[in-house]
Amino acid sequence: MSSVQTPPILSIQGVSKTYEGGFQALHTVDLDIKKGEIFALLGPNGAGKTTLISLICGLARLSEGTITVDGHDVVKDYRAARAKIGLVPQELTTDAFETVHNTVSFSRGLFGKPKDPAVVERVLKSLTLWEKRDSQLRQLSGGMKRRVLIAKALAHEPDILFLDEPTAGVDVSLRREMWAVVGDLRKTGVTVILTTHYIEEAEMMADRIGVIAGGKLILVEDKAELMQKLGHKELTLVLQEPLTTIPPALSEFDLALSEDGQSLTYSYDTRAERTGIGSLMRLLAENGVRFKDIATKQSTLEEIFVGLVEETR
Ligand SMILES: Nc1ncnc2c1ncn2[C@@H]1O[C@H](COP(=O)(O)OP(=O)(O)OP(=O)(O)O)[C@@H](O)[C@H]1O
C-alpha cells in the first residue's frame, strides 16, 4: 500500500540551544508538525517551551539544527517563514484606547499584507468579536481581550498559530472559553501549537502531545494513543459484604482491598490481549465474593505525565 505524505508545515531537525553563559536549554529536538493539527507542548516550568517557540519565530538564535516553516528556513529565509506564523502572546500590549477593528487591521499591515477588510471581518466574526469591532480595547472583558490577541495573530492569515500558555492566570470559566475558541480554530484549518503546564488543557484541546522536560522532547504521541499506550485502567468493585483479606484464590490478580474492606480494585493493562476481567469475575463468584456496584477508571494524562517526568530524573 502506498500513502501520499504531505510535507510537514513545521519541521524541527536536530535543534539545540545554548544561551550565552553556557546554559543548554534544548538538547537535539526533532519534531514534525502536520498541517491542520493541534499540538500541545506540555512541560513544567523551565522545560524549554518558550525557548523552542522563540527559535521557531526567529526571536532567538539557533545553536544547532534547522527549522523550516512550510519549507522556509527560519534563519536563511526569515521573512517568508515568519509570515507563515501567528504568535499569540499572553498579554495585550496595544493601545487601550484603540478599537478592536483598527488593532487587528494594523497587525495585518505589520506583515506587509495589503489592506483587506474581508479578511479582518472574517477573523473578527470567527472569534465573535464582530459586534465589538468599534469598542476600545479597554472596554472589553478579559475573555474578549484574549480573543483580540488571537485575532491580531490571525490577521495576516498565517498557517501556524502559536499560543503561549493561552490560559495562564485566567479563571476556570475563561479557561473553558479559550478551549472552545481553539476548538473553533480547528475548523478554519489553521495549525495550532500551544504550550501549557496543564495536562488537563493538553487533554482537552490537542490532537497530539509532546512532553518536554529538561530541554528534551521526551515523548510525542497522539493523545488517544498516549492514553491507550500508557494508561492503566482500574476496575473497582463495591462489595456486598466487607472482606478482611483478599482470598488466596485471587492472588494471581493485581488486587487491592480498601482499608474498610468495602471495595476491591483491580488494575489492568488496556493494551493486553486478555485483561483477565472474565476470569476474575468467575473466581470472585466461585469464592462467594459478591459485589453491588462496579466502576472503571482510566489513568488521566496527569498521572501519565508525572510518571514520565519522574522517569527522566
Ligand atoms: N536568555 C536566557 N539566558 C539564559 N538562560 C535562559 C534564557 N532564557 C531562558 N533560559 C533558561 O532556559 C531554560 C528554559 O526556559 P524556557 O523559558 O524556555 O522554559 P519554559 O518551558 O518556557 O518555562 P515556563 O513554563 O516557566 O515559561 C530555563 O532554565 C531558563 O532559565
Automatic annotation (TrEMBL):
Gene3D superfamilies: P-loop containing nucleotide triphosphate hydrolases (3.40.50.300). CDD domains: ABC_DR_subfamily_A. The keyword Nucleotide-binding applies. Belongs to the ABC transporter superfamily. One of its GO terms (molecular function) is ATP hydrolysis activity. Keywords: ATP-binding, Nucleotide-binding, Transport. The lineage of its organism: Bacteria, Pseudomonadati, Pseudomonadota, Alphaproteobacteria, Hyphomicrobiales. Residues 10-239 form the ABC transporter domain. This is ABC-2 type transport system ATP-binding protein. SUPFAM superfamilies: P-loop containing nucleoside triphosphate hydrolases. InterPro entries: AAA+_ATPase, ABC_transporter-like_ATP-bd, ABC_transporter-like_CS, ABC_transporter_ATP-binding, P-loop_NTPase. Pfam families: ABC_tran (PF00005). It comes from Fulvimarina manganoxydans. It comes from the Bacteria. The keyword ATP-binding applies.
